Amino acid sequence: MTSSPKPNPAASGSGPSADGPLLSLRWAENKLLLLDQRLLPGEIVFLELTTPEEVWDAIHGMKVRGAPAIGIAAAYGVVLGALRYAGAPAGWLPAVNQAAAHLATSRPTAVNLFWALGRMKERAEALSAGPDADNLAALTQGLLEEAKSIHLEDEEVCRRIGESALPLLKDGMGVLTHCNAGGLATARYGTALAPIYLAHEQGMTLRVYADETRPVLQGARLTAFELQQAGVDVTLLCDNMAGMVMQKGWVEAVIVGTDRVAANGDVANKIGTYSLAVLAKAHGIPFYVASPLSTIDLDTESGKDIPIEERPDTEVTEAFGKRTAPEGIKVFNPSFDVTPNELVTAIITEKGIVRAPYRESLARLFADK
Ligand SMILES: CSC[C@H]1O[C@H](OP(=O)(O)O)[C@H](O)[C@@H]1O
């Protein structure tokens, strides 16, 4: 793996980048070029990944993060596993499945990882039973086309989520968001941030309040960065300030992303989302979840069945390169929490806005597919 650093113009206060929005990843010359999101906003470093193990490490280490971006990266990771295989054609499918199985262990909560890997395995199965079964190059080219389709589809899906959500926004509105569900969490545009970008493009003035989102600070480092680059009015908050801005009447809607929506409409999202939903309820503020269909998992009955990732203690006990807690302190560091469906005002998808009763309305989404 190599990297290609360049200074971040926004970090030096020189305003939006001349190259347009930063994309989380792209495929070029049989490599996955991945923006190392751990280094934002101060440094823009693209990693060149050439093996599925490097992709596993990038997902596990949150160099790439965000449910759709994780799924897209994993899809390309499977292609890297196929490119590496040079044995007899009969061994190609097992090699592909082995790469997919390894990538499936990188993080447990975002269902897009498993959804994307499932698509790649289905396509590999079909290719290996097809006319090019003995042609490794053709097999791998077909697999690359599937990964590229997943990547391109996500960009279109996010744009349509923005369009679905637009009627919920009005000029001058205050919107609070949590973590990063922007372009850096997806192929482009984002999910929760897609309507904000679209509204901005259409000349609507929104006031966005971005929770910093401890402990990994996706809100401060990524959402505030993205929105600032795009010229959107964004105010950074510590997570414990969300209640006060609601109390002051500055927020008229909360819009967040998600990592997995269960069949009953329970929502897994970044830790702190549940608290926001309770606060929103207490203040009579609508709480919206932006979710592509690829993040809705009808095979998971309810929120209690969603695996919640627990991450290293050091994310909590260290910050800015220094210890911020005593040595040996006990730490609880769940990366996600579950918001019960009764606190979710609506789920915004690329096929429109879905409301309770969610078990029925979500099932209809997929029935009409
Ligand atoms: C559009 S998915 C964004 C979703 O993913 C984030 O989690 P992480 O940064 O740990 O991958 C967070 O839950 C966001 O809402």
CATH A-level architecture of the largest domain: 3-Layer(aba) Sandwich
Structural class: alpha/beta
Instruction: Give the total of domains.
Output: 2
The CATH superfamily of the largest domain is identified as Translation initiation factor eif-2b, domain 2
SSE order: EEEEHHHHHEHEHEHEEEHEEHEEEEEH
Radius of gyration: 20 Å
The number of helices is 11
Task: Give me the CATH fold name of the largest domain.
Answer: Rossmann fold
| Ligand types | the ligand CSC[C@H]1O[C@H](OP(=O)(O)O)[C@H](O)[C@@H]1O
Estimate the strand proportion.
15-25%
Strand order within the widest beta sheet: 7-6-5-8-11-16-17
CATH class of the largest domain: Alpha Beta
What distance lies between the first and last C-alpha atoms, to the nearest angstrom? 39 Å
How many extended strands?
Answer: 17
Give start-end ranges of low-pLDDT stretches: 8-18
Shape label = globular
Mean pLDDT: 95
Largest sheet: 7 strands, mixed
Helix content: 25-40%
Give a verbal description of the structure.
The structure is a single chain. The protein folds into two domains: 2-159, Four Helix Bundle (Hemerythrin (Met), subunit A) (Up-down Bundle); 164-367, 3-Layer(aba) Sandwich (Rossmann fold), CATH 3.40.50. Helix content is 37%, strand content 18%. The chain has helices at residues 52-60, 67-84, 92-103, 111-128, 136-165, 194-201, 218-229, 242-247, 273-282, 314-317, 358-367, and strands spanning 2-7, 25-28, 31-35, 43-49, 174-177, 207-211, 233-237, 253-256, 260-262, 267-270, 287-290, 296-297, 318-319, 322-323, 336-339, 346-349, 352-354. It has a seven-stranded mixed beta sheet, sandwiched between helices. A four-stranded antiparallel beta sheet has the order 1-4-3-2. It has a four-stranded mixed beta sheet with strand order 12-9-10-15, covered by helices on one side. Strand 3 and strand 4 (43-49) form a beta hairpin. It starts with a strand and ends with a helix. The model is unreliable at 8-18 (pLDDT under 50). It binds the ligand CSC[C@H]1O[C@H](OP(=O)(O)O)[C@H](O)[C@@H]1O. The site of the ligand CSC[C@H]1O[C@H](OP(=O)(O)O)[C@H](O)[C@@H]1O has 16 residues, from helix 2 and strand 10. GO terms for molecular function: S-methyl-5-thioribose-1-phosphate isomerase activity. It is an enzyme of class 5 (isomerase). Catalyzes the interconversion of methylthioribose-1-phosphate (MTR-1-P) into methylthioribulose-1-phosphate (MTRu-1-P). Pfam families: IF-2B.
